[in-house]
Amino acid sequence: MTDFYLLLTPLLVIAVLGLIRFIGCDIVWGLVTVKPTVPTILDPIPGNQRVDVRWTYGAGSAESFTVMYGTAKGTYSDEVTVTVTDDSRTIFTEPVTGLVNGTTYYFVVNADIGDDTSANSAEKSATPDPGFVLGTTLGPGQRNDIQGFVGMSITIGGADVVVTHLGRIHFPGNTQSHIVKIVDAVTGLDVGSPVTIQMPAGPENEYAFEPMETTATLEPLRTYYVVSEERDGGDLWYDLPNRSTTTNVAQLNSGISKRFTEASYSAFGGTNQMYGPVNFRY
């Protein structure tokens, strides 16, 4: 009997070694190695000297991601590492900052698990753009006492303006969602589709943008209101006085507001002033 086991043992060792070589030692010892899959990159959202890169991935199945980008298609000279801190997340956003406005950048994302890295995602491009509002000198006042809409009144210049994104400033400490929309000042009707901006979004005191599902064509010499829905006792926003510089596609007339209990909008402040503030890209 002893001779039988002595003969069998080398055969078993050879068999196990062959099995390990064939299917991998991790599976033999009961450990399953999870290989990273390719992230699904979404349309990036450009802002002022920045682009918010967005992607989706299965919950709990990646340790980190690498966002790679550059100014030539298919060539990525810079990268940002994003560590996963919440295994339940499936949608990710990473702001890439320090970019040059007006320059087109190309982005891909890959996933990392241990020493394994997935292939790159599809490539997406975006061009940083501050939007209509180039910059705002914020006043010291802050409010959250209106249950309704606040923002700005604008009058379009001599050509159509097609609005593609709407934005609201990220006041420090904001946590709520905000509907931002465009309203025709004459008819009171919404123009294009509204967007929902979930705070916090992007750096504090900068604009966070979301794309409109249906763009808005603003007609020459017509007045519109760009407004954000606010809640009494909710997220804070900036009061007057403040002063903004803008592009020349429209005139910033004043701040505007309308409580849900009021029938119409009322103007406050003067030229280049607004509540919020809010912004749009075109």
Structure report:
It is built from 2 helices and 22 strands. With 282 residues, the chain is mostly beta strands. A 6-stranded antiparallel sheet has the order 15-14-17-12-20-21, with no helix packed on it. Strands 4, 5, 7, 8 and 9 form a 5-stranded antiparallel sheet that branches. Strands 1, 2, 3 and 6 form a 4-stranded antiparallel sheet that branches. The chain is elongated and about 60 Å long.
Briefly, what is this?
This protein is mainly beta and 282 residues long.
Question: How do the strands and helices of this protein lay out in sequence?
Answer:
Blueprint: H1 2-23, H2 25-28, E1 40-41, E2 45-47, E3 50-56, E4 64-70, E5 78-83, E6 91-97, E7 105-113, E8 116-117, E9 124-126, E10 133-137, E11 142-143, E12 148-156, E13 161-169, E14 177-184, E15 195-198, E16 207-218, E17 223-230, E18 237-238, E19 243-246, E20 250-259, E21 266-268, E22 278-281
Antiparallel strand pairs: 1-3, 2-3, 3-6, 4-5, 4-7, 7-8, 7-9, 10-19, 11-18, 12-17, 12-20, 13-16, 13-22, 14-15, 14-17, 20-21
**What gap, in angstroms, lies between the N and C termini?**
86 Å
Strand order of the largest sheet: 15-14-17-12-20-21
Low-confidence stretches: 4-8, 19-30
Question: Mind describing the biggest β-sheet?
Answer: 6 strands, antiparallel
Descriptive terms for the model:
mainly beta, 282 residues
